[in-house]
Design brief:
The chain is an alpha/beta fold. The protein folds into three domains: about 1-290, Alpha-Beta Complex (Spore Coat Polysaccharide Biosynthesis Protein SpsA, Chain A), CATH 3.90.550.10; about 305-370, no CATH class; about 385-490, Sandwich (Jelly Rolls). It is built from eleven helices and 29 strands. The strands form six sheets. A six-stranded antiparallel beta sheet has the order 19-20-21-28-23-26, with no helix packed on it. Strand 17 and strand 18 form a beta hairpin. The longest helix is centred in the N-terminal third of the chain and has 17 residues, at about 135-150.
Length: about 500
């Protein structure tokens, strides 16, 4: 019985889906599939990949899911895993982004350590794709597993049946015939083509889109990485040897050595290893997947998978549309009205609005580049910001003041902290608050308030069983989020 470990690569930023996707809350944590599901792309990926170990398949023993994600996103992952009660997972937390090759190296080393001298088979998938036909997807993964079991040091990749001459994907050229495991030999990988070349690939028939999903043994990845990129291999092992472990809510956190991880060269799985495998000692096979795959790489892709009305429009939120066609309209915080437009993307959030021609939706990344160059916070965070203890929403601000609405989960608390440059007024609007204010600890309920002087040590906690909500009014010479000195923190933040 093969030991199979699902690996979710959950480190992308999804810049082409700004303003909904931001570095502090990237697209994999959003509900975007358009099929009526209330699950995020990350949650769908976790359940989808775990389906390979369903009860009808007695040949597979499924291990805990490994999620490789950014240190800053660990509590977003925890919150969303908590809703998937049947899934057991461990989180590998990257201190900085180094692309996917180091991420898979950490997962492979972790899988070997957890498997008690077995050589586990890894199923690797990005966290931000959609699949319409789960049954077909599961069968293709099982074919990949059988292919990897049949040949030593082999790799199996899922190739997507192309539906158009797409220039935004890399392609895989396969051989003409498949083996008993429905796997084709891979002849070569090719880069994203221009339009004319993509048309030729589609007409030729042996080229498929590279999905970024593949199956291999942990030992195979580590051996291939040592062969093709020994620098990444050595640096990854050093970072793993310096790791530390802790846990939250019963989920294990594994942190590679911070400085050692920073020293790993940044490279993708494809460039480091996969594209070098054809005709090497690491045979690579491809199983074809025709299951309604989409990587939601831009707003046009979100429109494609969405539920279109009779005029081809896809809507979400509070929207009104008249005399308009083939457009995506997304409202998150207010009414969005559209009159007489075609082929547009219109996305509204509390602090930003995007209007783009659908065919140019890939270029949204250029707006994000400008935001970064200007140091604007809209690149990183929404007005409403998730925190491990709950969330806050910056509802208003002006010269020397800021107003926030804050919600704290039952039993949760903010850090024991102080601010050098601001004072705070807290008004309880729902629930019960336990407040540390200097040497005092007081309890406040609805319509009661307190004042935290500048420089005073303080903490907000929710001792109750229902969410706590307060209004916070800040005043002072500097109101930035970095004006926090933490003395104690339940969540291990500095």
């Amino acid at each position: 019985m093969a030991l199979v470990i699902p690996v979710i690569l959950c480190g992308g930023s999804g810049t082409r889906l700004w303003p909904l996707s931001r570095s502090g809350f990237p697209k994999q944590f959003l509900v975007l599939s358009g099929d009526g599901s209330s699950q995020s792309l990350f949650q769908q990926a976790v359940e989808r990949i775990n389906s390979v170990g369903n009860k009808s398949n007695a040949k597979i023993r499924l291990g805990d899911t490994l999620v490789v994600t950014n240190e800053d996103h660990r509590f977003l992952v925890l919150d969303q895993l908590r809703e998937l009660q049947s899934i057991k997972a461990k989180l590998i937390l990257e201190p900085v982004g180094k692309n996917t090759a180091p991420a898979l190296s950490m997962a492979s080393l972790c899988a070997q350590q957890l498997s008690n001298a077995e050589d586990p088979i890894l199923i690797i998938t990005p966290a931000d794709q959609t699949i319409k036909n789960q049954k077909v997807f599961t069968k293709a993964l099982q074919d990949c597993i059988q292919s990897v079991e049949a040949t030593s040091n082999s790799i199996a990749i899922l190739g997507i049946t192309p539906t158009a001459p797409e220039t935004g994907y890399g392609y895989i050229q396969r051989a003409s015939s498949k083996d008993q495991n429905n796997a084709y030999e891979v002849k070569r990988f090719v880069e994203k083509p221009d339009s004319k070349t993509a048309q030729a690939y589609l007409a030729e028939g042996s080229y498929l889109w590279n999905s970024g999903m593949f199956v291999l043994k942990a030992s195979t990845w580590l051996a291939a990485l040592t062969e093709f990129r020994p620098d990444i291999s050595q640096a990854s092992k050093k970072a793993w040897q310096s790791k530390s472990d802790d846990a939250s809510d019963g989920v294990g956190f594994i942190r590679p050595g911070k400085e050692e991880f920073k020293a790993i060269p940044s490279e993708s799985i494809d460039y480091a290893v996969i594209e070098k495998c054809p005709q090497s000692q690491f045979p690579i096979k491809m199983v074809e997947l025709d299951a309604g795959w989409n990587d939601l790489g831009a707003w046009d892709a979100v429109w494609q998978v969405g539920q279109q009305d009779k005029d081809g429009n896809v809507t979400s939120g509070d929207t009104l549309i008249t005399n308009s066609k083939n457009s995506l309209v997304y409202g998150s915080s207010r009414l969005v009205s559209v009159v007489g437009v075609e082929n547009l993307v219109i996305v509204e959030t509390a602090d930003a609005v995007l209007i783009a021609d659908r065919k140019n939706s890939q270029d949204v990344k250029n707006i994000v580049t400008q935001l970064e160059a200007q140091g604007r916070e809209e690149k990183n965070l929404h007005r409403k910001v998730a925190r491990p203890w709950g969330w806050y929403d910056s509802v208003d601000e002006g010269e020397r003041f800021k107003v926030k609405r804050i919600q704290v989960k039952p039993g949760a608390s903010l850090s024991l902290q102080m601010h050098h440059h601001r004072a705070e007024h807290w008004i309880v609007v729902k629930g019960e608050a336990e407040i540390t204010n200097g040497n005092q600890v007081i309890t406040l309920t609805e319509n009661q308030s307190t004042y935290i002087p500048q420089g005073q040590t303080h903490r907000l906690a929710n001792p109750g069983k229902t969410p706590l909500e307060i209004i916070e009014v800040q005043s002072g010479s500097y109101l930035g989020e970095d004006d926090i000195v933490r003395f104690e923190d339940t969540y291990g933040r500095n």
